[in-house]
Design a protein that fits this description.
The complex is a heterodimer. Chain A is mainly alpha-helical. Chain A contains nine helices and three strands; from the N terminus they run ββαααβαααααα. Chain B is about 40% helix and about 20% strand. Chain B is built from twelve helices and twelve strands. The chains are: A mainly alpha, B alpha/beta. Chain B: This is F-box domain-containing protein.
Chain lengths: ~170, ~300
């Protein structure tokens, strides 16, 4: 059975029921609209509106879901010995995300967050964390296109506070 | 196929120019940024924090909420020398972190840890080195742990210019710290800060140090043997009784009170006895007792 998803720009995507169920948000909406896998009529007559996702981003989300639709649910990993949360991004996922520029990754992440697709959300989080890794403050600011609102004194204070971890 | 169905809109509608029209400045929501920050190492998150005030606040929040409820003990060894090279060990039931750092790094790390985490027990070992003592004492206002133990590395350390502190009290415990007298005053001043003054108690053995050196009460001796005399000022002290038995002696310095616990019922009897026995002498001696103003009021 297929499910119809409608994006903010009115594009309709027809996806497999299993793929639709990968999104907790879509899953909940289907429940609310009494759409079930065994009831073709309910699936045909309804479509799920997704006002926070554009068609371009939705297409990327679906591409990811297609690849991962048969994955076993992953267990939550504990933080590593340095207290960090870690997530292993598979080779396919790295390849999938590697050409996305930062802004596009953020859009995709926003969609993964809204649709509640944990695996994709974790993949992008880790990818962005990897992009930040090893960069200096000004490089990170450029990446996020941030205008620094800190005064020189505040910067100095922050550097002083965080200098210990640079020893 | 389903996959074909799914991808068709993408292939039919995606144009490069359209897809690349991505806003350059994407403000990721706080919860997403927090998630990313928790994936970063210490240096990376520090660099992120230095980009703007929003990320600085988020980074601080991530540090606080990430570690809260997890850490149980922090152990620090601070040695003497020009460089106080030592480790900071943070442990929980599940993990243990050892941070290697130089002296300034260690102290900054400690201050930061105390500011951003909740740790149940703090165990700090120091030596006589004045720099180390000062640093540790300066950390005390930042410590919010339920139990804090500060101990001297060398058990039997004692010299003429040191004040041996033996025993421990409920929240901040010192054991044979061997504080130099200047640092004792510093410790006393810090103990008056609102954050810890309500839980700053002294064991009887430490009361002598405070009374004599810090509060300027001369001839103050608390002995365990009844035959010895004890003189103190009733003006500068309050005595509390429970059911006729002394339960606490409070040394008063301006608005600040240092509570001396009754350690045993026998000790209470000794204090009561000596107070009564020496009251005449105490009154006479009062004129000789200088008032020690809190540090910030001194000229």
């Amino acid at each position: 059975p297929n499910v119809k998803l409608v994006t903010s720009d009115n594009e309709e995507f027809v996806v497999d029921f299993r793929i639709a169920k990968m999104s907790v948000t879509v899953s909940r909406l289907m429940e609310a609209m009494n759409m079930s896998e065994t009831d073709d009529a309910s699936l045909l007559s309804n479509s799920i509106p997704l006002p926070n996702v554009t068609k371009a981003v939705m297409a990327r989300v679906i591409e990811w879901c297609e690849k991962h639709k048969n994955d076993e649910p992953k267990e939550e990993k504990e933080n590593d010995k340095r207290g960090r949360t870690t997530h292993v991004v598979s080779d396919w996922d790295k390849e999938f995300l590697k050409n996305d520029e930062f802004g596009r990754l953020c859009q995709l992440m926003g969609a993964a967050n809204y649709l509640e697709i944990k695996g994709l959300f974790n993949d992008i989080s880790q990818t962005i964390a990897n992009m930040i890794h090893g960069k200096k403050s000004d490089e990170i600011a450029e990446m996020f296109n941030i205008h620094c609102d800190l005064t020189e004194a505040e910067k100095k204070e922050i550097r002083k506070k965080t200098a210990w971890c640079e020893d | 196929s389903n996959m074909g169905n799914a991808l068709r809109p993408l292939r039919s509608h995606k144009t490069e120019s359209e897809y690349n029209e991505v806003e350059k400045c994407i403000m990721l929501p706080d919860d997403i940024m927090l998630r990313i920050i928790r994936m970063l190492g210490l240096i990376d998150s520090a660099n992120l924090a230095a980009t703007c005030s929003r990320f600085y606040c988020l980074e601080t929040r991530a540090g606080a909420s990430n570690i809260r409820e997890e850490w149980e003990t922090i152990e620090v060894d601070i040695y003497s020398g020009i460089v106080l090279s030592k480790d900071v060990k943070l442990s929980s039931t599940r993990k243990r972190i050892i941070m290697h750092s130089n002296s300034l790094g260690t102290l900054r790390a400690l201050r930061r840890i105390f500011q951003t985490t909740a740790i149940k027990n703090v165990n700090i070992k120091v030596n006589l080195c004045e720099t180390a003592q000062r640093s540790v004492i300066d950390l005390i206002p930042n410590i919010g742990a339920a139990e804090t133990k500060i101990t001297h590395k060398i058990k039997e350390f004692s010299t003429d210019n040191t004040v041996p502190l033996i025993g421990g009290f409920k929240r901040v415990g010192y054991s044979n710290l061997g504080l130099v007298s200047g640092e004792m005053e510093r410790l006393y001043d810090i103990s008056k800060s609102p954050s810890i003054s309500n839980s700053f108690f002294l064991p009887l053995t430490d009361a002598v140090c405070f009374a004599q050196i810090v509060m300027g009460i001369n001839h103050c001796h608390f002995y365990r043997i009844m035959a010895h005399t004890m003189t103190t000022s009733r003006e500068r002290g309050k005595v509390y009784y429970t059911g006729g038995t002394l339960c606490a002696l409070v040394l008063v310095d301006g608005d600040h009170e240092t509570i001396v616990y009754r350690s045993t019922p026998k000790m209470a009897k000794i204090i009561t006895y000596n107070l009564r026995r020496n009251s005449a002498f105490v009154r006479k001696g009062l004129t000789r007792i200088p008032y020690v103003a809190p540090r910030h009021q001194r000229i």
